[in-house]
User: What shape does this take?
Amino acid sequence: MVTPPVAYADQAAANRELESYIIAQRGRRTVPGNLDPAHVDEFIRRRLSRGRPVRAFCQARRVADYYDLRSVLDHYERMLRMDERNTIQFDQSVYCIMTLAESGDESHDRKASQYFEYLVRHPLAGDSYELLVESLEALGWSASPRLLADRMAESVRALEARGASEREAAEQSEQIKQYLYDQLPRVVADRQLRQRVLSIPDPGGRLWELCRLYAGWGENDTIELSWWSARWIRRAARAGQGPLAVDAFRQVMREIEVSGLPKEERRSYRVLMLRAIRFLGGPLEAAEQSLIERPGAVPVGALDRVP
Assistant: This one.
């Protein structure tokens, strides 16, 4: 079983859809799923630059991930020149390293982790702690959460040294503490979960865990885990494990059907996973096909083929 061929949109249509998703302020909300990766590569090279807002880099990250667009990563590498002069450029660089780590190989991940260390030490890091914490969801194991934790703790000490009489300093200190003691530990726990899942030796068991994470069926229900698991499910399918992934999705669907959840909640999970099965080229019954094509069927996931 392989992912079925896609009837690609022509290049003009691809440019319109990518313009709407990546560049436009109020464009489409989901990654266009029927584009030729070569057209996506060309668009990102032509339209994504340091002159764009940070949002464009955020959206392009998802597109590169969805299309497994390793071919475009040299474009991102050329933008990483250690010359960030303001917060916009700093945040753009954070999204660049996230894209390198997610869409690249081990060498790209090492480069991304090394650049992460530089960014954590950068004078502008204090304005982007929240995004730096988020970036650890994308970076590999060599990126150090401890380095970021130490930098944030240093900022807290400096702010507290200014005295409680300075209201702005106190508010900034409390905000950084939230990143340090709340958000960062959750991200670290998610990283440990990912490492545990990928270390499962049995491919079927590993894919079952990945499918549960993709569906949000369990304690760890986050957008980042859903995109991460989708990435590894696609890689498994390319390695010939598509049928195992389809079986795993059906196993999770059976768990949810007998879970006691309300009907509409079970339906949402079912639609999400049936669309993933279709994405992987798995067979669907007529009733299942009708369900996922029904107008207003939600949600749309990272294993979906939405034009």
User: Anything to note?
Assistant: The chain has a mean pLDDT of 93.
